[in-house]
């Protein structure tokens, strides 16, 4: 088992642990529920992003490409071009990234939303004393949903990712 396969599995396991915590949030008091909901959701989505990067490394390693350069699916496609090598797994991942209705794009949007929640750029000035981010009160519709809804949504992403990685590994073992 390659180091990238181990890393992918590790990140998926960490995501699953965060989902278990998210599932038990109702046992905490209200203030802790809000904080735990946001932190667990963000952490679970972060680990899915890490699993994606590790999966790219798995594919690169299988095709004897430099896994450190492949940070996006498009990078893998470009790495195969000079060698006149078509990498179907990279093309599939790239299509998931570009398709606005794919589960992966939905996961990325949710991750970006979780990272940007309550934060705005403080200023465009690049001075040493200017704050980089300002916390703001965002009581709008772009707030993260309830813990139960997040758990279901992220669980769906996790299952889809597990299926994707299994399919890719099956294809790579045939290669």
Notes on the protein architecture:
By secondary structure, the protein is mainly α. It has one domain (3-174). It has six helices and two strands; from the N terminus they run αααααββα. The protein has helices at 3-23, 30-62, 73-80, 88-98, 103-116, 147-174, and strands at 119-121, 133-135. Strands 1-2 form a two-stranded antiparallel ribbon.
Q: What structural keywords apply?
A:
two-stranded antiparallel sheet, 175 residues, 6 helices, 2 strands, elongated, mainly alpha
Domain count, please report it: 1
Summarize the helix and strand pattern as letters. HHHHHEEH
Uncertain runs = none
Number of helices: 6
Estimate the helix proportion, in percent: 55-70%
Please describe the biggest sheet, giving its number of strands, its sense, and whether it closes into a barrel.
2 strands, antiparallel
Shape: elongated
Estimated structural class: mainly alpha
**Rg from C-alpha positions?**
19 Å
Q: Give the termini separation.
A: 16 Å
Number of strands: 2
Beta-strand fraction estimate:
under 5%
Mean pLDDT: 84
> In order across it, which strands form the biggest sheet?
1-2
InterPro entries: DUF6586 (IPR046493)
Pfam family, one: DUF6586
